[in-house]
Amino acid sequence: MDNHGSWDLDEDDIEPTGLPFQQPQIEWREVEAFLPADAYPIFHPSDADVAHILALMDTTAVELELAPGEPVASASGNQFADLRDGRVVKVGWRASELMLEAYALVLVRARTRVPVPRVHAAFVRDDAAHLVMDRVDGLPLHRAWASPGGGADRHAQLPRPALRAVLRQLQGAMDQLRALGERLAAQAGGAARGRTAPMRPAFGSWPRQPYAHAAFVDERAPAGLQAPSLVFASLAEFHAYWLARFGRHAADPAYADLRALWARSEGGSAALPELMHGDLAPRNVLVKDGAVVAILDWGTFGWYPTFWQMIGMWAQFKPKRVEDAIKEVFGGPSREASVYVELLALLDNPSFVEDE
Hints:
Largest sheet: 5 strands, antiparallel
Radius of gyration: 21 Å
Strand content: 5-15%
Shape: globular
Distance between the termini: 33 Å
Number of helices: 12
CATH class of the largest domain: Alpha Beta
Helix content: 25-40%
CATH topology of the largest domain: Aminoglycoside 3'-phosphotransferase, Chain: A, domain 2
Number of strands: 13
CATH superfamily of the largest domain: Aminoglycoside phosphotransferase (APH), C-terminal lobe
Mean pLDDT: 82
Low-confidence stretches: 1-22, 149-155
């Protein structure tokens, strides 16, 4: 079923339709054609395999730790169990988001060289999704770039050449995902009623779902704005969602900047979204021995505006030497990225929630 709907707005009437919080579950038939032939058992494990994994979680598993005495934290409330056999289980109650992550990991591992953990199984039991994957040892990027004297990780500080190499590796991963998106659009177009032209992607989670990104899924938001229930057909619709989201803060300068972006996109050419991780923040990049060993947390995988690519990196506090290295590799943030970094920071401001 197509999740597209109209978000046409009048300049003086920026009001979206009702948007329920629950995201739809991605069905196997929607992604089967894009995944490798041997992926079926991963997403349809036998009852015996599932029982074995659940038994391990009950008997031998321990809480996954980033370092001794430091459990892995999740802003989404997911839990992590270390099966102590080289595998970990990620358990979450946003089943659609976690299953999207599993599909994305299998897809990206099979069709690119982007480093991601291998998925062994993914299933839903008792309303909770379980993602069983390889454990990958490494430090989150923001810990690896710690300044001298910055605590227990100071020994892991990346020298400037190594930091640039890591950033270029991330740049290569972005390029691979962009190219993958072009191939997927062509494949989807060919599969749709014999078409040979690429299918135009919509702004939303892969393959064609409303965004599952935590920035769009917020229980604190006003009723009807907790999450999109539709994909966005254009960049103007993407901006319109955020204008409605921040409408009660129209006096904030960031709102005026966003309105200007929306007005420009309304009259401009039709910009296509790009396939990307969606939250390439330093916490989701594991490094070891001066190289990226894994990119994690793919529940945000989807089609976004080009400027969204580096949002997570620009929003992260970082030493000046790190910011300089990022600008050297990627250039500075675009105007659009700067506006959205400021807007997303408002979501973490208690007064923003209270005012709502």
